[in-house]
Amino acid sequence: MTDTRFFVLREFPSGLPPLNLFVLREATLPDLALNEVRIRNRWLSVDPYMRGRMSGITTYVEPYALDKPMSGGAVGEVIASRHPHFQHGDRVRHMAGWRDVAQLPGDEVEPLPQFDVPEQAYLGVLGMPGMTAWTGLNLVADLQPGQRVLVSAAAGAVGSLAVQLAKAANCHVVGVAGSQAKCDWLESMGVKALNYRGKDVDALTRSLRKASPDRYDIYYENVGGPLLEAALSNLRDHARIAICGMIDRYNDTGPAGGPGNLNQLLFRKARMEGFIVAEHWDHYQTFLQQIAPDVEREAIHYRETIVEGLERMPEAFLKLFSGDNEGKMLVRLP
Amino acid sequence: MTDTRFFVLREFPSGLPPLNLFVLREATLPDLALNEVRIRNRWLSVDPYMRGRMSGITTYVEPYALDKPMSGGAVGEVIASRHPHFQHGDRVRHMAGWRDVAQLPGDEVEPLPQFDVPEQAYLGVLGMPGMTAWTGLNLVADLQPGQRVLVSAAAGAVGSLAVQLAKAANCHVVGVAGSQAKCDWLESMGVKALNYRGKDVDALTRSLRKASPDRYDIYYENVGGPLLEAALSNLRDHARIAICGMIDRYNDTGPAGGPGNLNQLLFRKARMEGFIVAEHWDHYQTFLQQIAPDVEREAIHYRETIVEGLERMPEAFLKLFSGDNEGKMLVRLP
């Protein structure tokens, strides 16, 4: 008899979800069916995209169902298997997160790659967020050596890899973040850092210009809002804006205005494009072969903000929106 | 002794230019220099992009200089030549418009192509506006047979070719225009027409949805403003927005809000891209070979709004912004 504890969503939030929206439930797992595996999760991922799944409508991922186990990226160890590819002790990654013990078909589970990195890296720099940074820069924004690259939320899980990939391509890289500590980290990686706090559109526009007087070929967009407007006013000809996210708006309760300077796309013959990493997942092995060796030898840096214990998972999730995390936000289970 | 009459700009306008900003001047032309040609203009073009040249700043074309002859597309007849490629009587196209007699280096002049069409067609359906429609649909928006295509300013010089090219590709085509007469013309070409007058963002959003319940793969954008916001709410996955112009904003005197729903680009993995036809002009011969035969045999329709006489050129230009033109707006000289 194995028990599982999992989170369910009580109702669909309007605005920033309150903590009591997330309810921890407990259940006894049924016997393993043929081809199923049972996994004790060690690391659970919280990601901004999950807010979109709490809206009750399909945005670009399926919404969470009310009163059903929530899901998300997780890394753990197989503790029982009736699937031929898995056995007790295997380290695996899967999407049955937001719980301590998962039980699911083996074909929804993947073994962890064999690089010499901490296992939780496969939820961050070598997982979905890292792959998102690589995809946005290379497949969407067409990164070219020596160009001028602007990254928002640059100290986050996605942004902190994006700035390093752009640096590795000999680009002039400007990263925007929301604290002195984050800016210090960015500067330590050779990135020109800019703190957005307390700056309106005009101040941001001037700061971006000062940080790259020749303006920007690429804007890696994680945020939206005033920063997007300031970036639009600082584009070079044929600039590309890769829209990875717009976290600034995820918790809006009503309509808000948008940038009044979209005509810059016309003047600069520029392109703005949204993308979802899932559609590019067939490039994951290419990404891994390119990036993982650099992570192994610590040529690529990453940070983690770790919250301990399943109970605190909603708190970890909500911290994504106050910007309390540096790098990848993770929940560790005992 | 040959005289020329030409327009100069008295000052840079704020908002919609007043008529008295355009001053008609007269001068005696100097003797022809070696390699120069002298042209009696027959047709002068007025185009929305000229408003951008009246701002005193470089947007995507060089600004007009104050108190200097204005310029723009023109078709005329060579009346004197010291250039080996041109002789008296040749029909030519060039950029020394806004005047009756032009004198310029022969290498800035091109002979009219030899298709059996009225000569002014080379300022419209077979000129810059037509090439703009073709470029935006094919080279920017990646037009594919059978897709759903939305075109704004659909009865204009650019839009009216865009809708026909999309129809010819077996697309479901919705055209937005500003009068019943324009809508009737669009419907006569098999286009689903929609009058934007009196509709706010919500009403436009509903109307666009009704006109194409499966939404749109392509939005050919000439207008901006509320229609762009409504279009963003009606995109299909992987939609493309080709930004040809944003005439809605050309005469704004201050900042105005933009669409609050740019996150639709993310949800729909969609792309929005500005372009300038001049950068694609090396495709002009391809365009001409594809389109001109259909114009010759009247399989492609076009309309002209003709204003008579050089003196009325500023009036013709200003009518572009009230939407008084159907199809290509032209000035005819005696």
Automatic annotation (TrEMBL), chains A, B:
MF terms in GO: oxidoreductase activity, acting on the CH-CH group of donors, NAD or NADP as acceptor
Enoyl reductase (ER) domain span: 14-331
Keywords associated with the record: Oxidoreductase
Origin: domain of life: Bacteria
One Pfam family of this chain: ADH_N_2
Keyword Amino-acid biosynthesis: no
CDD domains given in the database record: PGDH
Protein's recorded name: NADP-dependent oxidoreductase
